[in-house]
Amino acid sequence: MRKRLENLTRRRCAPEDIVSPDLARDLARLSQESGRQVGLMLARDGSVEMVLVGDPRSIYIPDLPKSRGGRWRLRGLRFVHTHLKGEPLSQDDLMDLVFLRLDCVAAVRMDAHGGARDLEVAHIFPGNTGDRPAWEILPVMPCAEPQLHFSRFIQSLEEELERSRRALPAASAKDRAILVSVTDLDRDEAAASMQELVELAQSAGITVADTLIQRQRQSNPRYLIGKGKLGEIIVRALQCGVDLLIFDQDLNPSQVRAITDITELRVIDRTQLILDIFAQRAQSREGKLQVEIAQLKYLLPRLGVKDDALSRLRGGIGMRGPGETKLEINRRRIKDRIAHLERQLDQVKKNRSQRRSKRLRNQVPILSIVGYTNAGKSTLLNTLTHSRVGAEDRLFATLDPTSRRLRFPRDMEVIVTDTVGFIRDLPQDLLDAFSATLEELHDADILLHVVDVSNPHYEEHMESVEKVLKRLNLDRKPSVLVFNKMDRTPAPVLARALRRYDAVAISAIDRSTLEPLVEVLERKVERFILPQEAVAPEERVQEDSGELEAGPLCQALGANPLHGTGHRSLP
Ligand SMILES: Nc1nc2c(ncn2[C@@H]2O[C@H](COP(=O)(O)OP(=O)(O)OP(=O)(O)O)[C@@H](O)[C@H]2O)c(=O)[nH]1
Ligand SMILES: [Mg+2]
């Protein structure tokens, strides 16, 4: 029997036959005699790459050689095996098809006498699967004359896959990712969380090819996600030309490795994605130092896993942050590096606080817009600043000296700054990095906390923002709560929100709604001014009149003397 099985390796069938009739017959005969499934892994040219023997009901496929042509190609191997009782393709067969990205999987279904009766063939479905299965099962065909020209069939299958990849927007320089969430949240919450992950990914410059939510109570410890869903992901990656998987949940190092191994895709989690965004955004030296420290601290516990988890983690998105040369440095050197960076950071912080106390002596008031990501901060900034320049059609360049031509009393200006959005569940290391990015907030005189009140989760968002502000020691700063997007908030919801909180409602896309906010700001800013430096109200009005071709903020501020010096005796 052994000899006869070995002889199979020397067999060959024509490339156009999925399995030649005589090979099918011999497989069935061997199966009948051994009482086990017998299978062949056939290459595209019809040669036998592997002979496999299973038990009566199934067959185990060991690790296959790495795929030819990379992860977006089919493996170039088809698996043909016997089904002793003539049973249809099993779930395991279909999983093998998907997980191994086989050209196809075929069952030679035997009759009661051990003959090769017919052939059932399944292949990966090349188009967008949506809710349908990731595979397609062809109509059963007789073994004696299988009506399938295999080489032509596989060619058109690969062309179809290529087409479905090309149907997606071109994004050559970018990473293309599938976003995955495994959660026990209810449907709406899970969708909201996923939407946030999509926005995070996009702001990191990643093209989101697809999203996938699996709602389950208990997660699979090995892959986090269930095996069936993982199969779907593999097929979607193949269909979409994806190279990156991003999980909404934190992954432990061995999960990263297990998922990477089985999908052959790079795998990162939300925390690493956020770190990466910070790495992109950090401008100041302090920011860069803190982001690198956070990245290294994130990496450190993940070094325990042998193999190249390190390079994978580092390989997150592009190759940013601490460069590739550091891929090889070991745990010891990372710790040394963290210590070194922390010393540098201390020095920079000292210098900064000296610089700041100097700056504080001659500075214009700063209004800093903070808020949850996507609350509309940038929109508010644009609307406010656009209004300021009016007919001049020039954006309010925050620090542009020519804006003085607007003739504020005593050449005063107000600086409005936008900030990176806040997000929920920020780990401590990230918050440190965050605090560097938000360093300027310490210089702000007033915080405008912008809330998207149309979001059903707006109160959770407010809470997240307040938590961050507190941890940054900013919770005592004068602030104005702004409920944005009132245009798309149902009136009763808005009314209830306004009863509950002391807030100003606006719609940042509609300039005409900003007046109440501007009035509030006006009053707040006034409190910054030392009484002895304030100009008499009548004088102010006169100075203001007729000179300003400007929007409401400008008028409001213009109607108030904002003095460059000494106005910071704050409440
Ligand atoms: N309907 C409506 N949409 C708004 C309003 N304000 C902002 N948006 C939209 O909300 C989205 C997010 O606005 P952004 O200004 O980018 O939000 P952000 O807070 O700066 O977001 P991050 O910079 O990502 O933190 C954009 O699509 C805006 O057009 C509003 O008052 N009404
Ligand atoms: Mg913004």
UniProtKB/TrEMBL annotation:
Residues 324-358 form a coiled coil. Its main location: cytoplasm. Transmembrane segments: none annotated. Residues 365-529 form the Hflx-type G domain. Residues 539-571 are annotated as: Disordered. HAMAP family: GTPase_HflX. NCBIfam families: GTP_HflX. This is GTPase HflX. It comes from Desulfacinum hydrothermale DSM 13146. The gene is hflX.
